[in-house]
Amino acid sequence: MAYILRKLGFLVFTLWVAATLNFILPRLVPGDPVGAMLAKYQGKLDPSAVDALKIAYGLNDQGSMFSQYVKYLGNLLQGDFGRSISQFPTPVMDIVKMAAPWTIGLVGVTTILSFLLGSALGLYSAWRRGKPLADAMPPLALFLNSMPYMWFGLVLLYVLAFKNSIFPLGNALDPFLKFGTPEWWSSMLRHAILPALTILITSAGGWLITMRNNVMSVMGEDYIAFARAKGLSERRLLNRYVLRNALLPSFTAFGMAIGFVIGGSILTEVVFSYPGLGLQLNNAVQTLDYPLMQALFLFIALAVLLANFIVDLMYVYIDPRVRDGKAT
């Protein structure tokens, strides 16, 4: 319990730091949301409209920076991130709610699948090393893992969508489909295959290399040689000793890799015009939509922190030393 409380405290503290940086950094950048709106409308807004915009974005507050910070935190706790500049007057939270399910579905499913696939192939590559297929996997995985998400996505898009029309060129759905119908699900899956393959293939190579190295390291331990000397079968040796101990470092890497996967998914969504948080973030940067950028950065930080917290909770059940309070 002390371990969980410590990790929960770290989660809350880190989220507070991220929220604070999210408050400070935009105020260090020249200009403000109202200035961006004036540029968008080429100065055609009358003074009353400018005053209304300042009120909407909280820029009419003449109080101290600390009072603005307290108000900012209060708005965050209420889920109020202000109104989007590029999609004014739509609340930022409404945009996030519409985009988040697409990113969560794409990144969540592909991250878990790539971890399972890469770990299974890495286990096979290490356990059966010396065989042609097992020895061919590491260099191929290293090549795939070194490819940028955007480049690989463009290759898939060109070959499978543009040249051969096997999959759609972009977006997440065909138009005019009713939600929940078989046609809707079929269209959603067809549009998701190429973005999912981009993330799955490029990230699975990294898990293969990681798992292979972990397995080979475990197989060099003295207790593995002792278990073999006792006459344990290869299957029992693999399941009871090798796999369990090789997975522990992979779980740690899984939590840390979430941030890189989310970063890659942002580029992937841009390539495929997939209407998730990544595409919204790209549009927000291009249009200088500061409120939307702030919200998206904070949600990405929250996703990474929650993923790491879940991994820490899983450690309680995987590693006996954590349950007994002998590991941190």
UniProtKB/TrEMBL annotation:
Topological category with respect to the lipid bilayer: Multi-pass membrane protein
* Ranges for domain ABC transmembrane type-1: 100-311
User: By its UniProt entry, which CDD domains does this protein fall under?
Assistant: TM_PBP2
Pfam families in UniProt:
BPD_transp_1
Q: Where are the transmembrane segments?
A: 102-127, 139-161, 192-210, 246-272, 292-318
Q: Which UniProt keywords apply?
A: Cell membrane, Membrane, Transmembrane, Transmembrane helix, Transport
Q: What is its main location?
A: membrane
A Gene Ontology term for the protein's cellular component: plasma membrane
> Which InterPro entries does the record associate with it?
MetI-like, MetI-like_sf
An annotated GO BP: transmembrane transport
User: Where does the UniProt annotation locate this protein?
Assistant: Cell membrane
Q: Which PANTHER family match?
A: DIPEPTIDE TRANSPORT SYSTEM PERMEASE PROTEIN DPPB-RELATED
Q: Which family does it belong to?
A: Belongs to the binding-protein-dependent transport system permease family.
Q: What is this protein called?
A: Peptide ABC transporter permease
Species for this entry = Deinococcus metalli
